[in-house]
Structure formats: C-alpha cells, structure tokens
Amino acid sequence: MLQRTSWPCKLRELHNHHMDSTVWNDFRFRDDDIVIGTYAKSGTTWTQQIVSQLIFGGAEGIDVPALSPWVDMRIMPRAEMLAALEAQPHRRFMKTHLPVDALVFSRQAKYVYIVRDGRDVAWSLHNHLFYGTDEFYRLINDTPGRVGPALDRPPADIRRFFLEWLEQDGYPLWSFWENIRTWWDIRHLPNVMLLHFADLKADPQGKIRELAAFLDIAVADDAWPRILEHCSFDYMKRNADKAAPLGGLLWEGGTGRFINKGTNGRWRDMLTEQDNCRYRQLAIEQLGPDCARWLESGGCA
C-alpha cells in the first residue's frame, strides 16, 4: 500500500520587529521557485550567492539582494517587492527566516534550509546587531506595523549576549529551536534539502554539486571554476556590495561588517564548560538527540 506524503500547512502568523508572515498569503508561486530558509546568521547570504551562481552559470556582478529578497521582512514595501518578483523572467530564488508552520508551503517549489551550530549563530548575530547603525534600528523599530517589543542594541559582552540568547530561546530574535525543529521534521519531503554550514565549509565543491542536482540545474563543465570562485568567502568579501542588503549601509563598517568572518568556533575560548553543557542539554531537550547531534557536527541529516 502506498503511503501518502503529509505536506505542511500554514497554522499561524508570526509577527515581530523583523518579520510579518502574512506576506506569503499574497505570494504567487511558480513551480520552479527556490526558497532558502534559515534561522538567521546561519549561512543565508552564502546560500543565496551559491544559488545565484548556479542559476546564472557563474556570471559576474549578480546583485543578489536585489534579486533574492527576504520576503517576510516586514520593512520591505510589500506591493513593490511582490511586483518585482512577479516580473522576474529567470528562475526565482528568495529567502525566509520563518518556521515551516508560518509559511505557505508549495509542493512544487524547492526548499533549501541551512543550519549552523547555535553558538556560531549567536557570535555572528552579536556582530550583526552590535554594529547596526542608528538607521538600522530606526527602520526595524519605527516602520509602522511592528508587533511586540522594539529591538535593542545588545551588550558589548558577547558571552552575556549568548547566555541571554540561549536561555530566552533566540532573544532578541525569534525561537531558534522551533525554527530548526520544524524544518528537521520535513526533511523527508522530496522538495526539501537540509544543509549544514560546517559541511559546506568542509567540502564546498561537493555540497554545491549536490545542491545543483537537487535543484535540477545542469551546469556546464567550464562554468564550475567560476561558480566555485564566486562562492568563496574571499570573493564575496571583495564584492560585498553585491551580497550585503542595501550594500551594507546599515552597519558600521559597511559591507565589511556584514560579510564579517565566515568562521566557526569563535566561542571556544569564551564559553565555559558549564555554558557548553547547558547549550547541549537544551539542544537535546528541544530537538531530540539525532537533530541535536546533526546541528552540532553536521554530516548526514
């Protein structure tokens, strides 16, 4: 007897200082759309760069933020953003930071979800928020329609920031564990691919080829050297004006601050063994042992 696939359904709306999930209710999918999902600071921009290079065959100068918007970011002018996506003649790719149950899920679109160890996420997030300009905070907090408390600049003490983020489940953003858990639960679906930041760093060529196969993108042999070069951290750092949203203007230091280090493990000399034990305990409690192990180490999901 054939088993029927259980497809996700939208169960709720999610609103906060950054996001408004209702935009997906008005979005018109195409069958070949690509949706890149992450919690945040988990490799979103890198994955968008990779997908853009696969779609455009290693072309130079792809303005990724212009082509691939964060659809559920609430400060985006909705009508203009949706119209711009509707007008795109090429295969579309866009990003979301929503958990699955706050999305309108297409059975035909392809979904790529990338994760990163939560400690690395928190270190990257601290850099992102600590160096946000006054204009960044004005846009996030003062654009009409915000639901919930305002976003505050984090403390300079990064360990303190991490412990608040951990004990308050993603504070001052949204739930970290819930986001990962909802995507882990649909990893079996034929149009969903889970990636780990550490695996992508360890074997970029292998993982990018796997991604191309999943997306059904045939890449010419002579395009691969360009694609791999354009997906390297050094290339993205040099060309960050085509990778960072708004050219990086909302962060002190500009594009160099948004495309910061791209490294893992910066927390190792700053967190205590007790801190790490607490992180692992919560990961197992919230995700289960298999997902928690994958989140920390990568490998097969």
Automatic annotation (TrEMBL):
Residue ranges of every copy of the Sulfotransferase domain listed in the record: 31-281
Keyword Phosphoprotein: no
InterPro entries in the cross-refs: P-loop_NTPase, Sulfotransferase_dom
GO molecular function terms noted in the UniProt entry: sulfotransferase activity
Keywords, in A-Z order: Transferase
Pfam family, one: Sulfotransfer_1
Domain of life: Bacteria
Similarity field: Belongs to the sulfotransferase 1 family.
Protein name: Putative sulfotransferase
